[in-house]
Amino acid sequence: MIHGCTRAVVLTVAILTCTSAAASADPVQATFTLSMNPLFGQHQVDGGQVDQLSAAPLPLGELVIRHRDDAIRIEGLPPVTFGYGAGSGDGAQTTQLSLVNATYRRSFAGGWFVGAGQTLYNQFTNYADAHGAFAYVRNNVVFPIDGREAQYSRVTGARFEVGRTAKWGRDSFELSVAGNPRMRGVQYTRIPTAAFVCPGLGTCPLHQLTFSDPENAAQLDLSARLAHRLNRSAELIYGMRYLNYSAHYDDFPGKIADRNVGFAPTIGVRLRL
User: Fold this and answer.
1) Is the pTM of this model over 0.90?
2) CA dihedral defined by 252, 255, 257, 260, rounded to 10 degrees?
3) Residue 261 lies in a domain
């Protein structure tokens, strides 16, 4: 995972170095977009547990650095936390999620473009204090959960894009189809459980057990939005985004590690830097 991100950084630095050298003849253009993307959909984990997502906050920042037909696009979601409410059957309370998409894009005639890069997800989920009401089963061994379970993971993989931008007057339409056909990561599950053997009388002390599970994932990311130019340096952005992310465990075929599907209306402002 680290090597993949390193390659993306090296590519970015190389392109920016080349564009800086030619800046006097053909200046580099840069824009920054800040948008809100409240996600409406479903979150599913193994065991058939499905939680509804209602306006899950996704504030996204997007930096695009362009030189002629070449561009670097970096999209980021800072660590944000959203809750599941009282209806989560597996005890999940909140999830903290962050995201980085870094891609190189090449433009062609007619407004078409293709791109390739890397996606990185980080997530951390907190669970309610179980007090022995839940148990974690591993290789037919049952571990009572006597506290707050935590689950965290990092998943990364190559991202590919194709799209088109059409302009007329003060407006433009931007369509993007992106996908990550194969992502890799590791999910860690940390549970507090009472010791099997208690030293002396009294309450058994708790200790932390951590289990790791390799996982593979795939993602489809569709975006359609309109940009309306307000003045020379600002545009209003609005549209719709569709996300379909699905992860499975390597060691447990057919079992879902995580699945998120939903639509997110987009509204934001793009500034010319």
Assistant:
1) no
2) 160
3) yes
Place of tokens 């590919």: 160
User: What CATH number corresponds to the domain at position 39?
Assistant: 2.40.128
pLDDT tens-digit readout, 92-145: 788 899 999 999 999 999 999 999 999 999 999 888 887 777 788 887 888 888
Residue 146 inside a domain? The answer is yes
Q: What are the pLDDT digits (tens) for 35-63?
A: 999 999 887 776 666 777 788 888 999 99
CA distance 30 to 272: 6
Asked if 159 and 116 count as a contact pair (C-beta separation under 8 A), the reply is yes
Instruction: Tell me the two tokens of residue 104.
Output: 């190189």
Assigned domain for 25 exists:
no
Range of the domain at 208: 2-19+30-272
24 within a domain of the structure (yes/no):
no
What span, in angstroms and rounded, lies between the C-alpha atoms of 214 and 185?
A: 6
